[in-house]
Amino acid sequence: MLVTELSSGKRIVDYRRNCRMIPASLTKLITTASALRIHGPEACFRTEIGYTGSIHNKELYGDLVVLGSGDPSIDSHYIAEDSIRFKTFVCETVSRAGITRIRGKIIVDASVFRPADSSSSWLYEDLGEYYGASLYGFNIHDNRIDIYLRNEGNKILLHHMQPSEVEIELINELKPGEKNSWHINGAPGEKKRRLRGTLLTKRRREMRCMMDIPDPAGYIATAIRKQLQKEGVKIEGPSEARYDYLPEWHGSVKFLSFYHSRSLEQLVRETNRRSINLWAEAFMNCLDENIPKSFDGGYNRLLQYWETVDQFDPKQISLFDGSGLSPKNRITPNLLEVVLLEMGNRKKADNAVFYNSLPLAGQEGSVQHFTTPQSMKARLKSGSMFGVQGYAGYAQIGGKDVTIVLLANDFVNVQSMRKTMLEALQTLSGETEQHKKSDSYHKRKSRSTKRKKS
């Protein structure tokens, strides 16, 4: 547990500062801070729409091409107004170009990232789950499928999927039971998912579970082809996804338009408030200046930047992903504090964006139910997995701005640990408030004594 005054760096609480610990989603603090510092809050992802060959008499003699930028937010569930924006944009681009017939293919190229790069360090039980969706050079709908199930007699049946066009083999091994407890497993890139566990026998209405899209580029290529055909564009070739980077072929693609994501400021805010693993992985990969981009390249650039900051010790951090889902990650509380102190001066634009991206404790996001003392206004990022619980961010205690790092590993009862952390903050707040009242009392008493003497 670390509590430090933001303005002076004075340590209020200092316990096990240099212990290397599993940070879980507190990893997102350094990932998002790095993205803001290196790229700036106004940066965005740009996905290019282009073509190969030539256009004559409203006919494209070549392929329609989408060059993925690694944007994790395309048609995201987390941005309601974007739910169908990309497909609409592609169709409008084709219409503006005057194309009514495509003699070639619909190609979605996802080679800007090495596929499933960081997820190689994740637990098998997380692969296939929606929160464990792998990152690709092209991503759509947060790489997530919603599956709707029904209990029909003594059988659990698949009712429908959304989106329904995803090509996937779902092996349904669900059984009726006394509780809702299911798991989805499947390796990145493989189009087979296994659904296991139980569904509550008494419940008759539809139940939703979520899993990853194993081939997002292939899915959107097919979806774009169908949408263009629906709007009257004739297409002779098939749809195709590409994951291998081919420099000469990329150089032959002619530009039609750019699809821009929301600003990094908006994306970072959603990432930290909702703790979106996929988006954090994209931020990490995009730190890499090379193509194809990779986690290793992004992580190396992250270290290069932070090594220029005072008190940052690279020996206190070992990351295997950008989101915190990997149990191999290790960070010291001291290093988290260094990042928070560096990003704490809100007069800088990127620092203010970072501060405001952290959810208000007791009100928002992943800390909605972590109710800090009334006298303590806190913006905190949470992190949790089996045997790991953490909170880190900023708070006001006794009228002073402080950084807070709470991190615990290797415990059994998560509810008990959260209660212990909350009690620690309550004690700290109470002691500070009591100290403040005591100072105020002594000042009043001193003034009274002086008046009596005079």
UniProtKB/TrEMBL annotation:
<keyword id="KW-0645">Protease</keyword>
<feature type="region of interest" description="Disordered">
    <location>
        <begin position="430"/>
        <end position="454"/>
    </location>
</feature>
<dbReference type="InterPro" id="IPR000667">
    <property type="entry name" value="Peptidase_S13"/>
</dbReference>
<feature type="compositionally biased region" description="Basic and acidic residues">
    <location>
        <begin position="432"/>
        <end position="441"/>
    </location>
</feature>
<feature type="compositionally biased region" description="Basic residues">
    <location>
        <begin position="442"/>
        <end position="454"/>
    </location>
</feature>
<protein>
    <submittedName>
        <fullName>D-alanyl-D-alanine carboxypeptidase dacB</fullName>
        <ecNumber>3.4.16.4</ecNumber>
    </submittedName>
</protein>
<dbReference type="GO" id="GO:0009002">
    <property type="term" value="F:serine-type D-Ala-D-Ala carboxypeptidase activity"/>
</dbReference>
<dbReference type="InterPro" id="IPR012338">
    <property type="entry name" value="Beta-lactam/transpept-like"/>
</dbReference>
<dbReference type="GO" id="GO:0006508">
    <property type="term" value="P:proteolysis"/>
</dbReference>
<dbReference type="Pfam" id="PF02113">
    <property type="entry name" value="Peptidase_S13"/>
</dbReference>
<keyword id="KW-0121">Carboxypeptidase</keyword>
<comment type="similarity">
    <text>Belongs to the peptidase S13 family.</text>
</comment>
<dbReference type="GO" id="GO:0000270">
    <property type="term" value="P:peptidoglycan metabolic process"/>
</dbReference>
<keyword id="KW-0378">Hydrolase</keyword>
